[in-house]
Design goal:
mainly beta, 3% helix, four-stranded antiparallel beta sheet, 2 helices, binds alpha-D-mannopyranose, 346 residues
Amino acid sequence: HCLLRPADVQPRFERFEVIGTFNPAAVEFDDGVVILVRVAERPTESREGYVALPYWNWQRGGVASDWRRNDEIEPIDPRMVRIKSSGQIRLTFLSWLLVAFSRDGFTIDSFGEEAFLPANRYEAFGVEDPRLTRIDNRFYFTYVAVSEQGVATSLASTADFKSFERHGIIFCPENKDVVLFPEKIDSQYVALHRPSMQAHFSSPEIWIARSPDLCHWGGHRRLLGAEVAWATVKIGGGTPPIRTDRGWLSLFHGHARSDAGGVGQYAAGALLLDLDRPERVIGFSPQPVMAAEEEFERSGFLPDIVFPTGLVRREDHLLVYYGAADTATGVAQYSLSDLSGSVTPT
Ligand code: MAN
């Protein structure tokens, strides 16, 4: 079910258009669900022979664009270009985070007034892909901070989704797909993260780490990667884990190349981790449980993508919030037993 499309959201920046409302964080809030959506905007202006590369001017606090001649850049895919002289990669859009409220979980009732915009040098190319976890009475979200310094993961928190507190970078570049567990285990916070090395000794895989305070992370261990046969290119954490009788349950994404070329497909599976020792994998789905099927998942800015980033439990079923085709936000319902039943022991 498609929950939100670009046409539903007003552009935040002058002479920009919304091209994506996707990769949403979601958590129960006030008898409903609050959703933090990544909004991607790109400049509407075009200049013959040039491409616009938007960025956040953090010194002045506003959006701007670099205009590069077509012969100075090399297109990679719809998302990015490479600047030939430096080899630097730049995005064709700039992302920020929008707050949305839903009472029933399936329709948006209203939007929050306060946006979460880029604010510092580490966020000059956008803030992306939030993941929300309620810890005690505060809502924490990790998000991807993109800049010339690379792709890092930062932490912020809020009590009311009106004002936000930044806690800084928690995983330095290159690292994304960070999800926080909702409880401490052995008096320590726990997170899944996904380092992406430039030197290809390994494909990007899911790691786990612990922290005394949510800001300093150690005890890093590799959790899951190449053993997931359907994720041929890379794998990453998806939704923050929830406690179930069988273990910590979350959804993760796997990326596979497709015969059709292009970026390929993103599908998702379930992962179960031991409740007392989450470094131990109980099992994972040997086949994707979610793959692009519906029109809004199969076509868009990047076709064939489902990318789950939020999970809300409603008694014995789960609402999965996900990005579709790097364009829209979808919500799907699963029974808890179907999802955890898709997992086969390792
Ligand atoms: C990848 C994609 C993009 C994203 C960049 C930077 O290329 O996930 O959507 O903007 O990484 O995070």
